[in-house]
Prior knowledge:
Helix content is 26%, strand content 33%. By secondary structure, the chain is of the alpha+beta class. It folds into three domains: 5-229, no CATH class; 243-401 and 468-509 and 541-555, Alpha/Beta hydrolase fold, catalytic domain (Rossmann fold, 3-Layer(aba) Sandwich); 402-465, no CATH class.
Amino acid sequence: MRPSLLLALLFGCLGGSVAAQEGPPPPQEEEVVWEVRFRGEGIGTERASRKVLADGRVVLRSRGDMKLPAAPPFRYEQKLEQDARGLVRYQLTSSMISAGAERTKNGAVLSRTYLGNEGRREVKGRGPFFCLDNLVWSHYDLLAGAAQARDHAPFEAVFLVPQGDGAVKAAIKPGPPVQAEFDGRSCTVRVVRLALAGVLAELTYDAERGRALRVVVPPNFEARVRGFVPPPATAQPSEEVRWREEEVRFPAPQGPLPGTLTLPLAAAGEAPFPCVLFLHGSGPSDRDETVGPNKPFRDLARGLAARGVASLRYDKRTLLLQKDFFAGGEAARRAAKCLERLTLEEEVLSDARAACAWLKARGEFGSLFLLGHSLGALAAPEVAAGVEDLAGLVLLAAPGRPLDVLVTEQLVYKQRLAGLGEDEARAKVDETVGAQWRALRAGKLPDMARILGATAHYWKDLLSRDPPLRALGACRLPVLLLQGSKDYQVTRVDYEATKAALAAREGVPFEARWFEGLNHLFMPVEGRSTGAEYMIEGRVAADVVELIAEWVKKRSRRGTGGE
């Protein structure tokens, strides 16, 4: 499952101190326009001005106007004052929330008002305190100034998140200089990666002027100053191709879906090959289940093909609806209505069953398997219930608890990463999302109310699958269950509950495997998983691919490795 897009943190920092001059310099003011994109689609702008006063203070003002899919417009005005010691004061007013921050003798004070509820938090410490706030992209301009003023040397700071009521200590480590283009001229830029409470942001800034030019917060957001052309991506080393791929479209009840068939080369085994259909986790995923630079479904598909197993992966229905929403006009209106009525049936089940029918109609594969990841693992038994003659299920990071419980635990974990204690983190999550879950289960939320970006109508449907393992218990297919030890989204509690449900199916075989050191994407991670590592390029562990391939071939009735 993906964390809600509303949890994405966008960062802002201190501008560098002004060099001493004879007499007070005149105020300097510069204006820029940030163009903001969400999953590749334009969603609005932020117009910002930065003024350096005679006393060295930096005053940053901006107006933002953004429209996220299936959410009300977010319009704000903000003013941030900082000096050589860091934050002085900050105030934001918007269509949804007001927030502020101010430096004190003992640290800083955060304040916010959201839906009529007022909150205040004291953050103690010496700092330096730098302001951060959600969707205020111009704050990165002051981070660029801070990095340039320090000659691009590493430094640490405490970042304040007034809208999120958060404070997180983090390190700034500018990368080496590279060449890019701004306003038609060559410029030298540096890149900073900033990890805060499990979110990784990447800032590209003008190394000579100390001005921000581009910010990327994978997988959702990119903002860049108008006129900036980023440096070209580093070429990846080529690898031996041990598969072939075919772009396809298959019919489905809500309209055709595009996908990719990944097929073994003849040398990988004897046809007909067994075939795996991939089922995505939550969110509007593409066929590769892309998260930042990572593509776990592509890794699995190509790794399986190299070992004699074919597969189909396809763009998820909600991804197509999101693209239609951004297209505007009648397509956007239709997409908005579909998203309002969305349940698991429209999101996953009907399309997956249609994909199974299409694969069978081709008549070129041996046994057919479903591979579900996270939400896809929850949905796989329900898909199987409507498809005849499947050979088995592969479940990766399968939820074993009600999804409101699972999501709550994820949010508490994120609050702990932000520096809160266990009790404080649970109280904070319970006050907000917990209250919404209780109202939902009590039938007191209207269908169009929003919880973590999705409608109450959608959540009611998901929570009707309580216990979530009921469909799995009724499934009579062989199952391979895989779990990573460092997954914080789906944990050992879920793994043990799912194993117990599988063991209770008398006479139906299953295999369960626990992988040390792997996160939710089944990629290795050093230290604990925070989600920030999702934005660093990795690969699905080879032993995961190997185990799936061997299990599928063993269970296949025809083709390589058939019994």
